[in-house]
């Protein structure tokens, strides 16, 4: 006899993901535009007076937009361990991810008035990559979240054709070096000293200047 109490199993749907390289490339390009638009809308909401707090749900959403249709875990924290190719850093175990992401959000929210826009954006860039909360799209999600924090803290949608995330993608080595510099400092001290992301701050400051310089040149007639 069938026990009625035992037949009510959940049947979860599986997330659909594309399988050809061409579809993947097309989807990645479309997602990247959607993610940039998502960041812009979040900045505009904050400028419109909606109080800004960095929350895990915002970070999850930026990951979902980046890898939707490309990875079954889009918008979810990874369930297990992960490695980063060619990096010495081993991200924390999967079960620790939610706690580390909450700690990152707390750091940003608690230091919002005390620290500069460059510091907060640099901290997010490093720490989110350090946590590596997702099965894929960690770089894209970290860059988008960092840029969101930078713009909201500055209180403006930054002008310029070559945004900081675009500059990083065009030349990744200094970005990897800055991530590794903070990894080493953190490993040695096990905490967040004031200058933990010094290298990333220098890099980001230079990239912000470049982004604004492009606007200045454009204003002077350069194409
Ligand atoms: N030493 C390091 N510590 C922390 N994060 C690192 C380190 N080296 C590289 N990374 C990050 O890991 C990312 C790769 O992770 P993943 O493949 O999930 O991201 P992605 O968004 O798919 O990649 P991409 O940045 O190429 O778009 C790199 O882009 C970089 O942001």
From TrEMBL:
Gene3D superfamilies recorded: Fido-like domain
GO MF, any single term: ATP binding
Domain of life: Bacteria
UniProt-annotated binding residues for ATP: 136-143
InterPro entries: Fido, Fido-like_dom_sf, Fido_containing
Residue segments, region Disordered: 1-20
Keyword Cytoplasm: no
Enzyme active site: 132
Pfam families cross-referenced by the UniProt entry: Fic (PF02661)
Compositional bias annotation for Basic and acidic residues: 1-12
Swiss-Prot/TrEMBL keywords: ATP-binding, Nucleotide-binding
Entry protein name: Mobile mystery protein B
Organism: Jannaschia donghaensis
